[in-house]
Design brief:
- This protein is α+β, with helices and mostly antiparallel strands.
- It has two domains: 152 residues, no CATH class; 128 residues, endopeptidase fold (from Nostoc punctiforme) (Alpha-Beta Complex).
- It is 57% helix and 8% strand.
- It has ten helices and six strands; from the N terminus they run H-H-H-H-H-H-H-H-H-H-E-E-E-E-E-E.
- Strands 1-6-2-3-4-5 form a six-stranded antiparallel sheet, covered by helices on one side.
- Strand 3 and strand 4 form a beta hairpin.
- Helix 2 packs antiparallel against helix 6 and helix 8 crosses helix 9.
- The termini are far apart.
């Protein structure tokens, strides 16, 4: 016992003298949070893309299932009709044996036998051909529906995996933010470095993203663009929400999609596809209502409102706001409509 106690005491003493890991500096915390948020935003774009795929496939699968139900009903009606004909022939003592077999088996196989058709009148033969065609269509659509449902299940699994990844990164970023003061937290979240490269300092300016490229002609917003901007303005102050398209929270592409939807213009769900939802324009050609895409990987989008300003949902932990378009690397722009 004495030896064990002494050993334990020694171990405790060693643990007490060991140096604890140094606390990260504010700069390091900022870089880590920016990196985590950047990764989460990219993962959110993937999540949104998969969600869009799943939604479309679900609609397709529902239509296929409805078609299967309708085809089954039609097949039942046809079988009932040929059954009535068979019953009449049976009562008259003229029911061919092959017709009796067809009613209890697979009409497709019986139609392959020429002698059966020879024993049926034209009405019965035509009805059996209808049954066979309907049975083929039903079988094909059941196979298609099964395939679609299997693919949908794969997408659901992928969505759950993406969701877990995003939540993990956001939770770690929040843990780091909880180690700093409220003022430091606000400074970190106000930085735009998560949209360029961690530790890069001020946002990069390429040859296409210099002050001279600022829009030279700002026309007043009108028509559908004005409606989209009005909608976006009404969302200012609402919190960023990953994977959200409103009405209480939005991510960046969710906000632009909802804004233009208010003007009856349909945009796709993610930045990588929204950049194809309109006519490409240069930074100097920007007009209110245009979508502006940022970062070298096109991972952020905002709605241009004129005067070198935009409305956007910046990042997790922030609110929808109005900001300068010169705080991030300009990737491209499109004019919806």
């Amino acid at each position: 016992m004495v030896t064990v106690a002494a050993t334990m005491t020694g171990t405790i003493a060693l643990a007490g003298t060991a140096q604890a890991d140094p606390q990260p500096s504010l700069q390091q915390i900022q870089e880590q949070v920016n990196k985590l948020h950047s990764d989460a935003i990219k993962a959110t774009d993937v999540f949104n893309g998969v969600q869009e795929q799943a939604d479309k496939l679900r609609e397709t699968a529902n239509r296929t299932q409805a078609r299967v139900t309708d085809e089954q009903n039609q097949l039942n009606i046809l079988r009932d009709q040929i059954g009535v004909v068979a019953a009449d022939r049976y009562r008259g003592g003229t029911l061919p044996a092959t017709l009796s077999l067809a009613l209890s088996g697979d009409p497709e196989n019986y139609l392959q036998k020429a002698q059966m058709i020879a024993q049926l009148d034209s009405q019965q033969a035509a009805k059996l051909r209808q049954i066979a065609a309907q049975a083929r269509a039903l079988s094909q659509d059941r196979t298609e529906a099964s395939s679609q449902l299997a693919e949908l299940e794969k997408l659901r699994t992928e969505l759950n995996r993406n969701k877990t990844e995003i939540q993990g990164k956001l939770a770690e970023a929040e843990r780091l933010l909880n180690t700093v003061t409220r003022e430091q937290r606000a400074k970190i979240l106000a930085s735009s470095e998560h949209e360029t490269a961690p530790g890069s300092g001020t946002p990069d300016r390429s040859s296409r993203d210099k002050p001279k490229d600022t829009p030279t002609t700002d026309v007043p917003a009108s028509g559908r663009a004005a409606v989209a901007i009005q909608f976006a303005r009404a969302q200012i102050g609402k919190w960023y929400g990953w994977g959200k398209t409103g009405p209480t929270n939005y991510d960046c592409s969710g906000l632009t999609q909802a804004s233009w939807a208010a003007a009856n213009v349909k945009l796709s769900r993610v930045t990588t596809t929204q950049i194809n939802d309109g006519k490409r324009v240069t930074k100097a050609e920007l007009q209110p209502g245009d979508l502006i895409f940022f970062n070298r990987d096109n991972s952020h989008v905002g709605l241009y409102i004129g005067g070198g300003r935009m409305i956007h949902a910046p990042r997790p932990g922030t609110q929808i706001t109005e900001a300068s378009i010169d705080t991030m690397y300009f990737y491209g722009a499109v004019r919806p409509g």
